[in-house]
């Protein structure tokens, strides 16, 4: 029917009775399908504008927030042989409790009286040091005495020099006087000789004058000898001053040298004493290391060494321990594209392995069996495969985390962000494809494994 006329014949003609019209009629199923499709499209468009809370999904495990509360291994500071175990796996230990007892394996420390013998050596060295210090003090006193004796001796020799100079002056005057007197007698002798030869004086008088001349010559020679002797004494006095100075300086220098050598021995003894004290302190500390103690209160998780008589190396882990007080946290790993949206203090919903939960990430209000958390730490560099680690702590305003949750248990988390329309979140997910760069970082190591 083209419906060209304004007069309708639909009321007069029964279309259902005519096969041709019945065949050309639009099927009811198509209309129903079209209505359903339009309804679904309308519902989809409406849903696109519904509010959706952005969330970031991450997976990880339970850990401790502070490093000191995380599981750790207890290492032996020295090499030794296991003599006795004091604990069992799963046992609780207090800080300072003995875990095991070690014995020595180095021949240097085999002597059971090593500390006593080192103490005897130290005492002997201290006594020797005391004697050397006394010797150095005695040499110092000797040096002071020699310097004082040098001053006294120099004063004596200088006084002697002064006396000899005065005597030299006196003998010089006497010598000059005798020379004048001898000259006078000689002149008198020459005149009387002329008179005697002329017969003007008697022989006895001439002989008397000649005798006085000889006597004057003898006095002159004696005065000259005294003068020369005094001159020699002055020279000897000057030589004595130089000799005394040299003699005492030699003694003083020898004493100073002996004192310096003694002081050198003192310093060497002090160094040896310091070394011995260091050895004794090290030995005392080493003897304490024979008892491997718990660094903090906690539970013995696993013994990494077993048996009696097994040797361990320095720094080798012996047992693993988990602290008593735990500030539990969850470390989640999220994609790099999601990190810019995460800030500290964001709310998180967490699902622990072993706790049944019905989680609606976009509508956390209807989630069942999940627990609340808060973003505490966001790593500033990637952890592995381009993912970043986020540390989550319990939300004080939410239900407490189960006490039975153990460290290392698996966990899933949804970091709650802002409310946005659903279409915006779909658009963000479609435009946030992660780059393939992170996957290529692991290829070299895989190739090395294949080469091996």
UniProtKB/TrEMBL annotation:
Keyword Membrane belongs to the record: yes
Keyword terms: Coiled coil, Membrane, Transmembrane, Transmembrane helix
Coiled coil feature spans: 115-156, 266-293
Keyword Nucleotide-binding: no
Matching InterPro entries: MFP
Transmembrane segments: 32-52
Classification via PANTHER family: INNER MEMBRANE PROTEIN YIAV-RELATED, MEMBRANE FUSION SUBUNIT OF EMRAB-TOLC MULTIDRUG EFFLUX PUMP
Record protein name field: HlyD family efflux transporter periplasmic adaptor subunit
Record organism: Fulvivirga marina
């Amino acid at each position: 029917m083209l419906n060209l006329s304004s007069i309708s014949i639909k009321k007069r003609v029964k279309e259902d009775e005519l096969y041709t019209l019945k065949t050309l009629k639009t099927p009811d199923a198509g209309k129903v399908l079209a209505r359903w499709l339009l309804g679904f499209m309308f519902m989809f468009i409406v849903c696109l504008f519904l509010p959706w809370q952005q969330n970031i999904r991450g997976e990880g495990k339970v850990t401790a927030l502070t490093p000191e509360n995380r599981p750790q291994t207890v290492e032996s500071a020295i090499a030794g042989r296991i003599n006795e175990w004091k604990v069992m796996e799963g046992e609780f230990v207090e800080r300072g409790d003995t875990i095991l007892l070690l014995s020595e394996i180095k021949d240097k420390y085999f002597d059971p009286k090593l500390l006593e013998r080192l103490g005897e050596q130290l005492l002997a060295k201290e006594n020797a040091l005391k004697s050397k210090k006394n010797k150095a003090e005695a040499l110092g006193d000797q040096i002071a005495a020699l310097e004082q004796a040098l001053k006294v001796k120099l004063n004596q020799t200088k006084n002697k020099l002064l006396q000899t100079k005065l005597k030299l002056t006196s003998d010089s005057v006497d010598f000059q006087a005798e020379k004048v007197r001898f000259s006078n007698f000689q002149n008198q002798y020459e005149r009387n000789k002329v008179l005697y030869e002329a017969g003007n004086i008697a022989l006895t008088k001439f002989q008397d004058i000649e005798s006085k001349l000889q006597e004057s010559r003898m006095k002159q020679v004696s005065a000259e000898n005294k003068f020369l002797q005094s001159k020699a004494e002055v020279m000897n006095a000057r030589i004595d001053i130089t000799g005394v100075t040299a003699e005492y300086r030699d003694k003083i220098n020898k004493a100073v040298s002996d004192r310096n050598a003694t002081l050198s021995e003192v310093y060497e003894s002090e160094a040896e004493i310091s070394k011995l004290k260091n050895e004794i302190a090290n030995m005392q500390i080493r003897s304490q290391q024979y008892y491997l103690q718990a660094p903090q209160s906690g539970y013995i998780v696993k013994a990494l060494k077993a048996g009696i008589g097994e040797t361990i190396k320095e720094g080798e882990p012996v047992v693993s321990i988990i602290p008593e007080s735990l500030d539990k946290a969850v470390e989640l790993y999220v994609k790099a594209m999601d990190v810019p949206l995460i800030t500290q203090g964001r709310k998180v919903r967490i699902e622990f392995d072993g706790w049944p939960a019905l989680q609606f990430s976009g509508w956390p209000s209807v989630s069942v069996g999940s627990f609340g958390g808060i973003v505490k730490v966001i790593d500033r560099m990637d952890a592995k495969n381009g993912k970043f680690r986020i540390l989550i702590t319990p939300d004080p305003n939410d239900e407490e985390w189960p006490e039975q949750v153990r460290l290392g248990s698996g966990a899933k988390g949804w970091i709650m962000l802002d409310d946005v329309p659903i279409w915006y979140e779909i658009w963000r997910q479609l435009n946030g494809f992660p780059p393939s760069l992170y996957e290529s970082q692991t290829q070299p190591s895989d190739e090395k494994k294949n080469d091996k």
